[in-house]
Amino acid sequence: MRRFPVFILLAAAALAAACARQSIDTKPAVEAALRAYLTQRPGLAMDKMDMEVKDVKFKGETAEADVVFRVKDGEGEMAMRYTLRRQGDQWVVERGGQTGASGAEMPPGHPPVQPAPPEKQPRSSQP
User: Fold this and answer.
1) Which tens digits make up the pLDDT trace of 38-61?
2) Where are the domains of the chain?
3) Distance between CA 98 and CA 78 in Å, rounded?
4) How many CB atoms sit inside 10 A of residue 33's CB?
5) Which strands, in side-by-side order, build the sheet including 62-71?
6) What is the DSSP code string of 71-88?
7) How many CB atoms lie within 10 A of CB 56?
8) Is the distance from CB of 89 to CB of 21 less than 8 angstroms?
9) Which pLDDT band holds residue 76 (cuts at 50, 70, 90)?
10) How far apart are alpha carbons 77 and 65 in whole angstroms?
11) Sequence-distant (≥ 6) Cβ neighbours of residue 44 within 8 angstroms
């Protein structure tokens, strides 16, 4: 009979410890890490852009975030993928700024993309 109260006490302690450690596997936690990372980047004017975290995939100690940046009061936008790593109770950007240009498909209806023509070299005036 004495084991039952001890078991209840241990179960309650384990539950309290689990609740005390908040899960950071959330979109807002990833967005906060991205904002912290981007505001520290020199030459990047985040005040002139809107950032939208479109999708986040959590894989244990890492997360991948698909982010769209839009120019405020403009029409330009750019999609990027960031890899984040869990450090304690927060996410930290490990690798960032990968665009979809590395083999990603264009959206439906996009015209075919051809490589840029080679630049014409100026002809030498010497024979």
Assistant:
1) 999 888 888 888 999 999 999 999
2) 24-99
3) 11
4) 22
5) 49-59, 62-71, 77-87, 90-99
6) ETTSS-EEEEEEEEEEET
7) 21
8) yes
9) confident
10) 16
11) 38
List, as own/partner pairs, every contact residues 34-40 make where C-beta atoms lie below 8 angstroms and the sequence separation is at least 24, other chains included: 34/65, 34/67, 34/82, 34/84, 34/93, 34/96, 37/82, 37/92, 37/93, 37/96
Q: Which CATH architecture has domain 24-99?
A: Roll (3.10)
